[in-house]
Hints:
Blueprint: H1 3-7, H2 11-24, H3 28-34, E1 35-38, H4 41-51, E2 65-69, H5 86-89, H6 98-105, E3 109-114, E4 134-135, E5 138-142, H7 148-155, E6 161-166, H8 172-178, E7 181-184, H9 190-193, E8 204-209, H10 212-222, E9 234-236, H11 244-254, H12 263-273, H13 276-292, H14 305-312, H15 319-342, E10 345-349, H16 363-379, E11 383-389, E12 395-401, H17 408-416
Parallel strand pairs: 2-3, 2-6, 9-10
Antiparallel strand pairs: 1-3, 4-5, 6-8, 7-8, 7-11, 10-12, 11-12
Amino acid sequence: xxxxxxxxxxPADAARExxxxxxxxxxxxQQRAALAVVLSEEALAANFTAARTAPLATQPLxxxxxxxxxxxxxxxLPTFAxxxxxxxxxxxxxxxxxxxxxxxxxxxxxxxxxxxxxFAYGITGENSTYGDCEHPRFPxxxxxxxxxxxxxxxxxxxxxxALGSDTGGSVRVPAAWCGLYGFRLAPRDAWIADAxxxxxxxxxxxxxxxxxxxxxxxxxxxxxxxxxxxxxxxCYLDMPGVDADVALACRxxxxxxxxxxxxxxxxxxxxxxxxxLDAYHTTVALEAWEAHKAWxxxxxxxxxxxxxxxLNRVHSLTPAQLDSAQFALTAVRLLWTKFFLTYxxxxxxxxxxxxxxxxxxxLENRTRVLTLTAPAxxxxxxxxxxxxxxxxxxxxxxxxxxxxxxxxxVNWALERFADA
Length: 420
């Protein structure tokens, strides 16, 4: 069901249908892994009714249900961020967070919260407490993370819209692997500033939809869409470490948007992107520890061991690594500034491979993924992700990297992928 389908239902029918879908479209194990909170049918009916009441009834997303990733605060609910203990050390504000309040103002209907990779510190959708979040159509393969539950909820068809966050690819990767459209905003805006942080330098708010039309409607309602009379200029960059079938599919799909980068631009970008992965890891480690340090040691036994090891990495960082990361951050932002003097957008593969199986969720593949996503993350840039089909029936995606959330490229690109 798309946005329009939900908007045609009565409040009672919409509440009943959403509740039915939340139990019918995922196995009990995957309901636990993906869905942190689903409001009762009565509460949903009340929310749908409120969305049809003036002045909300005239808003563009009136009656469209959504889930929020559980690092965004919602009124009256605790925020766990994929953990077992966060509300004990960081109470959620009773009025909820800025992102959920913004959705309410558009008439969208809050339906509940979704699970995530613990504290958003992972890209594979694994969670040792609530369960690993699997691709709804390919059991045994991951949705990707950290916005795993939100991607699963949209991919399964429970809701047509779900909120996520993206630090190192946590909207881009699940969108690509689940065949969804994803939009990542820019760091430090109001919608991410009061969410539970991973790395404020790279953290962004974002969302998923199942099709291009709904994504255009969501972007139009939330950030606004722009058009430009002149032709838009971009290029596609082949990246190292991408599986052959994915590289071919991405290169072919990118032809709808832009030609390959010329050799000078290609070499300049590849050289400039080379240090971004190490700089990303250092930046995130430093800032994640800052977010957790007030309680980390006394709660250390309550963290997922893998997440704890990533948090604890801060203690092994050297002054040279910190200086190198800062230099790389400055250099890649200058590189992007230079690029956008000539071009309106850059297209990259969103993932190096199709959705991973559990044994494939290893350090090597995590590194391969982050190599593709770190340049835009460190650049602090918005990204539209569009799905790309693979011969196997699985999917990957394209990152369409722009210099502003209201770039005219976004609307233009969605028109070209409307039939994807």
